[in-house]
Amino acid sequence: EQVGAPLDLYDNPANLFVAGFIGSPKMNFLKGVIAGTEAGKALVRLPDFGDVTVPVSVKATGLATGTPVTFGIRPEHFDEAGSASIAVVVDILEHLGGETLVYARAVSGNSDLVTISASHREAGKSGETLTARFSPDKALLFDAEGKRIY
Question: Which CATH architecture has domain 6-149?
Fold first, then answer.
C-alpha cells in the first residue's frame, strides 16, 4: 500500500488503509462533503456533526461542491486550543493513567464512535456533551476511492 519510515506513514498516509492501520488508537474517519473551496482550503461539511464546516488545507484544485470525502483526524490531535470543533456525547471513558481515551458519538447519535485522547482531568463523564476542539491543519482528506487528497 505504501513504503516509508513508520513516522512518515503515520504523518502522511497515502490512503485510508494506511491511515487506519498505522497508529493506536486508530485515526477517526468522519463522513464529509465538500462545501466549497477558498484560498487553498477545502471547506468540508460534516453532516453527522450538525453540518459543521471545517477548512482543510489542500493543494488539489477542482474539488466539486457536493463531492463525498472522508475526513481523518487522529485522537491525539483533539486539543482545547483548536480553532474547529464538533459536539459529541461521551459514551465510554478508558482511563490509562496519564491520558484518557474518550469514545463519543455525535450529539445526534448518527455517527460512528470518535476516539479522543484527553488528559485525565479534562476527559468528562459518560453521557456528558463535550465540545471536541481540534486544529483543522491536522486533518486529512480522502476521496471516495480512499486515496489521500493533498
Answer: Beta Barrel (2.40)
Would you give the DSSP letter of residue 130? E
| H-helix segments, the chain | 6-11, 16-21
Per-residue CA distances from 135 to 22, 72, 111, 127 (Å):
21, 12, 20, 25
Check the CA dihedral 126-76-54-145 and report its sign: negative
Spatial distance between the Cα atoms of 141 and 150, rounded to a whole number of angstroms: 7
How does pLDDT run along the chain (150 residues), one tens digit per residue?
999 999 999 999 999 999 999 999 999 999 999 999 998 999 999 999 999 999 999 998 889 999 999 999 999 999 999 999 999 999 999 999 888 999 999 999 888 999 999 976 667 789 999 999 999 999 999 999 999 999
